[in-house]
């Protein structure tokens, strides 16, 4: 069985660190302490990781191609949860928010 590449593991680790530390995409989430929203229920945290992993792209060598894009889409979802006036652009497509079993 293959393992995730070091680059993918590093991206996941840093994403989890920024998320838990309250420093995910400071440009979009500045002034929002989203941690109570995200960590309030397992389903919110589940959705965050689903969006991140669905959007994340990896090349044939296991190198992450778009970590910033994946983090930004998560930040947009979080912002929409915390700020009812915020509109996600472009809107999420079904594949981005799909929960895989």
Helix and strand run: HHHHHH
Number of strands: 0
Give unreliable regions as ranges. none
Percentage of β-strand residues: under 5%
Overall, the morphology is globular
Q: Summarize the biggest pleated sheet.
A: none
Ends distance: 19 Å
Provide the structure class. mainly alpha
Describe the structure.
The protein is mainly α and 101 residues long. The chain is 59% helix and 0% strand. It contains 6 helices and no strands. The protein has helices at residues 6-21, 26-29, 35-40, 42-55, 67-82, 94-97. Helix 4 (42-55) packs antiparallel against helix 5. The mean pLDDT is 95.
What's the short story on this structure?
The protein is an all-alpha fold and 101 residues long. The chain has helices at residues 6-21, 26-29, 35-40, 42-55, 67-82, 94-97.
Supply database-style keywords:
101 residues; 59% helix; 0% strand; globular
Helix/strand layout:
Layout: H1 6-21, H2 26-29, H3 35-40, H4 42-55, H5 67-82, H6 94-97
Helix pairs in contact: 4-5
């Amino acid at each position: 069985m293959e393992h995730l590449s070091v680059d993918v593991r590093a991206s996941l680790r840093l994403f989890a660190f920024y998320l838990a530390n309250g420093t995910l995409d400071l440009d979009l989430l500045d002034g929002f302490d989203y941690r109570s929203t995200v960590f309030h229920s397992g389903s919110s945290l589940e959705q965050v990781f689903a969006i991140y992993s669905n959007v994340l792209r990896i090349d044939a060598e296991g190198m992450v191609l778009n970590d910033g894009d994946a983090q930004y889409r998560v930040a947009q979802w979080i912002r929409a949860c915390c700020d009812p006036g915020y509109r996600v652009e472009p809107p999420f497509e079904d594949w981005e928010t799909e929960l895989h079993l």
